[in-house]
Amino acid sequence: MTIESITSGQEKQIARFLEDAAISATKLGLAQVVLRLDKDSAQCIITRGDELKVAIEQATINALKQLSSRYLVLEETKLLKPVAIATVPARTKFFNAEMFYQTGPGLYVWGTFEDRLDLRARQIVSSAPERSYVASLLKANAYDRDIRKELPENHLSRLEDIAALIEAQPDGKSGILFTNGYTNIFYVEGKDGEVFAVPVYWLSDGRTWSVGDWELDAGGDWRAGSLVLCPGNAVL
Questions:
Q1: pLDDT tens track for 29-40
Q2: Tally of CA atoms within 13 A in the half-sphere of 117 that contains its CB
Q3: Which residues are registered as beta bridge partners of 134?
């Protein structure tokens, strides 16, 4: 899949928006804050001018990332707190879910995984654009039904994306997935359209990743401290 680059016209238009925003922000800042300061407070801003510059730059970058995202931007909810973002690189090589999700060196796959997720029926992925994933900390014990209520409508993950995140952390290497014994939870559509929770966790004793399939709410609640991942973006 070809990703088209930004055009010069788009670049100029966005640059104009940024310039207009800077002028507007300066006027509002002067009128609503600066002109109401006393001399000592004004001097504090002058002394910390570099910090002001960095804060404005970071706010601008965050806004651009949020507004440019093709995914819903996740915010903290009663149960979930976004804590990390990862980019799944664009896939340019063939990916066969049935071949990847096999127990072997570095990976243990539950026995029911292939059938429930209907791996044989899945089309082989030859290419896919890069996607952004958000990892949210589960703040309290919760059932799948309650967790999913607080996720975006389009929160289901793709098996090739889960594979890419696992591949990015060989031998338990540090990354977006927890390797501290807590579970990384994805939601994936399986056979006949049924959605399953897909727990991924690092087995430090066996030096391997474990991937399973879980009927929603069938095994009780997930414990606080687990990580819930789904396509999306977030301003951290």
A1: 888 888 888 888
A2: 29
A3: 85, 230
Tens of pLDDT, residues 83-92: 999 988 877 7
Please give the structure tokens belonging to residue 122: 């899945």
pLDDT for position 1: 36
Our count of domains for the chain comes to: 2
Question: Same domain, yes or no, for 60 and 139?
Answer: no
Assigned domain for 2 exists: no
Amino acid at 164: A
Residue 74 lies in a domain: no
Going by DSSP bridges, is the β-strand pair 80-88/107-109 parallel, antiparallel, or unpaired? unpaired
E strand spans, the chain: 80-88, 107-109, 131-138, 184-189, 195-203, 208-211, 214-215, 227-231
Same domain assignment for residues 12 and 59: yes
Judged against a pLDDT cut of 70, whether residue 71 lies above it is answered with no
Q: Mark whether 88 and 157 lie in a shared domain.
A: yes
Q: Give residue 131's Cα distance to chain centre.
A: 9
Angstrom CA distances, 224 to 6, 88, 153, 227, stand at: 42, 26, 22, 9
Indicate the SS3 state at residue 233: strand
Give me the pLDDT at residue 2, please: 40
Domain assignment present for 149: yes
CB atoms within 10 A of CB 63: 13
**What is the helix (H) or strand (E) element at residue 71, kind and residue range?**
none
Which residue range(s) make up the domain with 205?
A: 80-231
